[in-house]
Amino acid sequence: AQACHHDAVSMKEVVCRILGFLFRSLTDCIGGPRQPILDLVTAMQTGKATLGLAKRISDLDRDEFEMLPAKDDVSRSLFVSIGVCASALSKLDKNLVLGVYHLLDVLPWGCGKGFAFAAMIQECKDTGIFKRKEIDSIVAQHAKILEAGMQKGESGLDDVLYSVAASSSRKMPDSIREFLVGNKTLLDERGRMISLVACAASICSIPCLGHRATEISLRPQLTWQAAQEDVA
């Protein structure tokens, strides 16, 4: 029994170190107020959110934040890793999940945060942090951002596209799939690749990205609304 307890404690320490490293590295990619984010990093390292941490992060002004262009590749890799760690985060402290959700919310779209954002939204749903109606409202808000970007012909929409596709309980509308997925005018080469991943995420789980799966070793599974023509 003592050995099992020791193993559990050791595993928690490992998880905390990994999460602390990921979020500490992410702070180096962000321009803007640092203290609340550093407080979140400290909470990751201890595995416990301090009182009011999530609220302080939610009160931040999103206009004060930017992602540093020189760190673009690094931040995108970190967001993918954070998304994979979403389920581990909720096992430590649900308030940490909420804090990360609010941090992602204030960061600008187009930086790759969609991979982490979709995973955190799913985790908020699975753990009961947000009710179904709140989740639907969040996804609808992101869908409006996507629609407005499409109407204006904005570039870099692959980020919000993935978040919407991976978070929605419905499959990607044909109008979006036909117009945006693989669009060479609005998306660069990486964006077109991500748009294809988003298309897949709307109809199946992608465990290696932490999408609708608790373990990365699981096989992808089609969702109930996936039709034969979607797979073809």
Structural class: mainly alpha
User: Uncertain runs with pLDDT below 50, 5 residues or more?
Assistant: none
Mean pLDDT: 85
Largest sheet: 2 strands, antiparallel
Helix content: 55-70%
| Rg value | 18 Å
β-sheet strand percentage: under 5%
Helix/strand order:
HEHHEHHHHHHHHH
Question: Rough shape?
Answer: globular
Q: Helix tally?
A: 12
How many strands appear in the DSSP assignment? Answer: 2
Intertermini distance? 52 Å
Neighbour order of strands in the largest sheet: 1-2
Brief sketch in words of this structure:
The protein is mainly alpha-helical and about 230 residues long. It is about 60% helix and about 0% strand. It has 12 helices and 2 strands.
Describe the protein in words.
The chain has helices at residues 2-27, 35-46, 53-58, 72-84, 86-92, 94-106, 114-126, 132-152, 158-167, 174-179, 189-201, 228-231, and strands spanning 30-31, 66-67. With 232 residues, the chain is mostly helical. The protein has a two-stranded antiparallel sheet. The longest helix has 26 residues, at 2-27. It starts with a helix and ends with a helix.
